[in-house]
Amino acid sequence: MCADTAVKPTTAAQGEILLEAHDLARYFDVSKPWLNRVIERSERLTLKAVDGVGFSIRRGETLSLVGESGCGKSTVARLVVGLYGLTRGKLVFDGEDISDLASRTGRQAASVRKRFQMIFQDPYASLNPLWRVGTIIGEPLRFFRPEMSSTDRRRRVGELLEQVGMSAMDANRYPHEFSGGQRQRISIARALANEPEFMICDEPTSALDVSVQAQILNLMRDLQDEYGLTYLFISHDMAVVKHMSDRIAVMYLGRIAEIAPADQLFESPHHPYSKMLLEAVPSLEGAGKERSVIQGEVPNPVHPPSGCAFHPRCPHANARCKAEAPRLIARSDGSEVACHGVEEGRLP
Amino acid sequence: MSQDIQTRESAAPVVPPKPSKWRTFLDSDIVYSWKRQPVVIIATLVTLIMFAAALFAPWIAPQNPFDPRQIELIDAFTPPMTTSDFTGNFYLLGSDSQGRDVFSAILYGSRISLLVGFAAVIFALVMGTALGLLAGFRGGWRDALIMRIADVQLTFPSILMALLIFGVIRGFLPRSMHAEVAIIVLIIAIGLSDWVQYARAVRGATMVEKSKEYVQAARVIGLPARKILFQHILPNVLRPVLVIGTIGLALAIIAEATLSFLGVGMPATQPSLGTLIRVGQDYMFSGEWWILLFPGVALLMLALSVNLLGDWLRDVLNPKLR
Amino acid sequence: MSSTPSSDNQRLDQRSAAPVAGHEPGTAGQEPVLSVRRLRVEFPTRHGTLVALDDVSFDIAPGEVLGVVGESGAGKSMTGNAVIRLLEPPGRIAEGEIHLSGKRIDNLPEDEFVPLRGRHIGMIFQDPLTSLNPLFSIGDQLVETIRAHLPMNEREAREEALKLLCEVGIPAPESRLDSYPHQFSGGMRQRVVIALALAARPEFIIADEPTTALDVSVQAQILALLKRLCADHGTAVMLVTHDMGVIAETADRVAVMYAGRLIEIGPVDEVVRNPQHPYTKGLMASIPGITKKLERLYQIEGSMPRLAAIPSGCAFNPRCPHAQKRCRDERPDLMPAEGSRAACWLHDPVDPLPPRQDVEGREVSHVR
User: Fold this and answer.
1) Count of domains forming chain B
2) Is residue B20 less than 8 Å (CB to CB) from chain C?
3) Is this prediction's ipTM beyond 0.85?
């Protein structure tokens, strides 16, 4: 497997495609209850959390989704693992259409589900507080490999704990006895239990302190090298994303603004929003230097702006940006950008 | 290796012999809080004594007040702490108009009160938990339907609901069966009038737990809804329910007593504490005060101590402080 | 105190010298707005007394921004809460003194202390919704705060409120004066909170994680605003945050905390670029950057000790690559170290410990 993360697949030649997402969309009904709507004469409200997102992930690579709150990055993660059903679009995992995964049950679901796993943000909420750590980590094994004897399972749980830097003895303890970083290690051990190929990581270090974050990020890289794992990595932290990713998709209000190889995005971002995000990152190197301040905030996603959703904050917006939503267009340097200005050549 | 410290630190507490379960329990916050509150200690003792007295009534009570053959009509209205001149029986708390020993009647009566209380709470708890889980987990129209019914029921005082349910159930049964099934009808009536608070608490807790990431992790694995509900969510929502149950027990005991006092609960041939109070009140001003007073005090002590325990449990197990 | 008598003596000596020798760049020649001396905060519990803050001393000069940084449990918020007396019970100040503009405030009775909040010490918290009353319009809240502290009538106060909203960059402030907190976005709400904090023109503001709940782009706006306004008004700021990036671009000086102790303090450029304490070094090296690309991040092994199990000597010693016997036995005080001051025996002016290994190479291997 293509486990060498140092190789950047800037050309589309390396590795087979593991996951393909076409035009994913997920709408949520956020209307008030029926009675309130009738009395207050308010309309039905739809939140387009994800609206037309497409990408592909090659085996062994890390694709990151990055963006500010409300951009839909976590929703995309939950669509991919089938926690939410798709409103529109198509998901293909290793050649198999899994668009209907959320509604699948039994064997049909298990054959796909045993091949990927998810790591969550909150280390305090992601472990059942009443279960021993060993039971928590063994859960996927009990479900996917019922034939496994309990002795074998216990041995496997011990191995997994040691693999994530803990002790096999910890299996007998309860989650509340551990710190946030240790809990996140337990989450990772659970995710690894059934030897998945693909991991969806939803802000896995956002709730952790920086020194612990470094431990967890290093661990995730080690595991990727060892098992050739493929990561879909979700984060709002540009520096973390840069450290972890081969490619990065910048999202804004339910759409992808730009997808590019990680190094390239940081060297020469095309989309004005990507530029803005990069400039907003506080820099440690230039201590005391002020970052350029960007005006405005992310609009309410229930009432997104017309056309390009970024136009009210964009210094380069023109009439076309207000009227027409841009499409992702591939560029010769391997990036894809959804911006009229870039497409027309007004912007570099 | 890079995680040496982590390993050392986490393995360290396992190496010394683990304190026994009993030791851990004695050192827990619950025991600590219990030991520091004399009121709670007294409430616990009173509750335990009354539970034991009710449970072992046949061995403690001098007579079986439900058995007419054991009752000496000639001993009617014997005052407390008196030995009867006629039969030589000793009446600790006096006897009533039928010559029934009040002490025995209280022991057997609290048996019925506690039986009805426990059964009604379990009935309400199971029904409320099931409906609350369904509403919270599935949402949608099921949630709306269940919670609207609950809202409507809440607008009536629960004793009124119990009276209503009691009347409706009795209406369907032949008169001859009334005395036999009185206890079951009482349990259903009180249980049905009381499920709403369990349903509400469970629904809220279910919605909170459902959105937590450990449940999502189980869904990513593909665990069927049934397993998620019973293995993950139910055990995690039970704690508030058990606390409500303890307080609910005191309320159910009082509800039973109220119904029996109003004459719609237990018949005088199988008196509960409430029935005893109803019978006793006729003699309150004619000098035979013990027939009313002692059952009343027994009911008060039982309901109060159970309630105090429930309040204390709620404070100790408050999930916010966990 | 957990240390040996000999080290206690030694520390007392250094302490008595501290007010003279310990003045830091930025405070020279000026009386500090806030001066915290040997602050110790304890939490009595049934398993013993937890020491949440242990011997913390620092000054903040007028107009200066002091960043207080540390990981969760380091005591950074506790320091701010102790200053404004918002410690959660049973927490209490066990030792030490707090001076505001030369006046001792930690021993004031409650009814004399409360008026200081708002008037002399402004507060900005992480969640703007906790600082704003949802039932009153922001105009009413501003007017009320202004009139509570300054001699103004309703009309003057309203004009002042308008000016403040203008200053914090609320667009069309005339029309927003009668809006309620829920009608504002997160960033705008935090601007209102800043306006409230500045309303009574306090000489000192405590900002506890003011931008943690905000998106990066908004974060930059709020920090720039805070920095500009405080410079304009000459307000000193104690900026409490876990984010080194925020500190690096906002603070003038940085105080790094670990396990309830102040372990390094100095000018921001020095501490960020050339950290002296091994913990600060490790912390800086473990932050992924956007300009560099590393295969692995430096990681400090283990985790911060719980308050109930703070190691003897230097609290960092079990995780420190340079730790030696002395570090386990004696607690180091702040000592001059290059441009800053660090609580580490490596910088002992009399008998410095030799460093065991240089972490600058960002090696992961960990020599003990």
Assistant:
1) 1
2) no
3) yes
